[in-house]
Amino acid sequence: MLKFILNTPRIRELTCICMAFGAAWPSAAADLRVAVTENLDYPLNIFDKDRQLKGGLLKEFTDNIAGHIGAKPVYRLYSRRRVDAAVIGGDSDLLCYTSPKWMETPQAVAWTIPAMPQVERVVVLRGSPLPEAFQQDLKGKRIAVQIGYHYALIQALFDSGQARRMDMTDVPGMFRLLERGGADALISSESEIEGYFKNFPDKRHLYQASKKPFSIVQTQCALSYRSRWKLAPVNRAIQRMQESGELEKMMRDYGLSTH
Questions:
Q1: How far apart are the first and last CA of the chain?
Q2: Are strands 185-189 and 142-146 parallel, antiparallel or unpaired?
């Protein structure tokens, strides 16, 4: 800062006062563009009436990542069909709650450490025997599943005709089919099961879910190779949340298993 001091007409002094600042003014945080799969609802995503993201497990999780790496989270919605391409192409930086097993070209992105599990369970009508040894207990059953999804544990039953696959386009349709007696069981993730009961709380008493998980996938985040952000800080952010117990608390708050 310059300060000019005028004394008398005969004497004119120029005094330069230099003030050094210990730190520069903080610059605005750069955006962390987070890809959101628009058909994943509660508890993973919570949307307002205009389908704008306002909360949910994944928003809390990625808000925390952004805070740890000094970024501003910006959320972009995509269809399930387009979301992988958005990260691969660099239109978004980060996609969480995904897996190399689910992406056609997993080598096209960088993968974080495992973050949180996706747990699938078998649901039956309350009072029906709960399947536990799935390959044996599901023989001869009509099983409601989502079209296009693969169920490796019992694929041999479907292929041999020992179980009948009932393909449905959405989870509410699977529950309705089971309730009407058109299926003997359904297979879905805990998040989708909880999402259904959130929307239809009066239906919860009609069903029971297997205590034993049908499958567990340790989901990760996919980071675009075209992103300005680096993998190591994102991994450190996830690890801090895991070690502090913060991530486990988030998942339990939404009714999800942590392992």
A1: 59
A2: parallel
Nearest by Cα to 196 from 174, 216, 169, 177:
174
Residue 259 has pLDDT above 90, yes or no: no
Cα separation, 45 vs 87, whole angstroms:
18
Nearest CA-CA partner of 42 in 159, 167, 183, 201: 201
pLDDT at 148: 86
Strands 116-125 and 164-168, sheet pairing: unpaired
pLDDT, one tens digit per residue, over 157-186 is 999 999 999 999 999 999 999 999 999 999
d(CA 116, CA 123): 22
Contacts of 226 by beta carbon, 8 Å cutoff, 6+ apart: 89, 90
